[in-house]
Amino acid sequence: MRKIIVAGNWKMYKTPDEAIEFVENIQGVEAKEHVRVIVCAPYLALPAMMEHVVKPLEISAQNVHQAEEGAFTGEISANMLKGIGVGITLVGHSERRQYFAETDDIVSQKVSRALSEGLEVILCVGESLVSREEGKEKDVVSTQLYAALSGVSSEDMKQLIVAYEPV
Questions:
Q1: Are both 78 and 112 inside the same structural domain?
Q2: 0.85 surpassed by pTM
Q3: Of 18, 35, 60, at which residue does a domain stop?
Q4: For residues 141 and 135, what is the distance between their CA atoms, to the nearest angstrom?
Q5: Would you say the C-alpha torsion 138, 144, 149, 150 has a positive or negative sign?
Q6: Contact at 8 Å (CB) between 122 and 38?
Q7: Same domain, 7 and 42
Q8: How many angstroms separate the Cα of 143 from the Cα of each of 57, 72, 135, 161?
Q9: Active site residues
Q10: Tens of pLDDT along 28-79?
Q11: Of 12, 52, 3, whose CA–CA distance to 31 is shortest?
Q12: Which CATH number covers residue 104?
């Protein structure tokens, strides 16, 4: 049976202490076998959450850099995430595309890097309100999907979740 995925992105909210409190409060919540619950947390909260997390909750990073390593101040690599036990990352979030000028090509590189390093990817795609009002939503989303998935093998597709995120 296909699993239902419920994912929430904390954006730039919650300190590490607040994140631990959340994880402790959710412990013991009964989850259905066919439902995955994922929280996409800020980088600084990830190590603390990974130490306290219990099923059904899963923890995801909000972003990952496309390079294996290098002089990329303020960025984080897939291996760094794996090193603290994080196995999932968002890629292509609308805010990254808008505020950090992440192009479809950059998103594609990030997807490829994350998958090649063994991370599961939550790929965000979606059109803007303007594109939707102009009737271009299908073109925008299909362009994002084709770009992000170019070079992704059918085997790697099993490690990919597509999140439709119209803005």
A1: yes
A2: yes
A3: 60
A4: 12
A5: positive
A6: yes
A7: yes
A8: 32, 28, 14, 17
A9: 93, 165
A10: 777 778 888 899 999 999 998 998 887 778 999 999 999 999 999 999 999 9
A11: 3
A12: 3.20.20.70
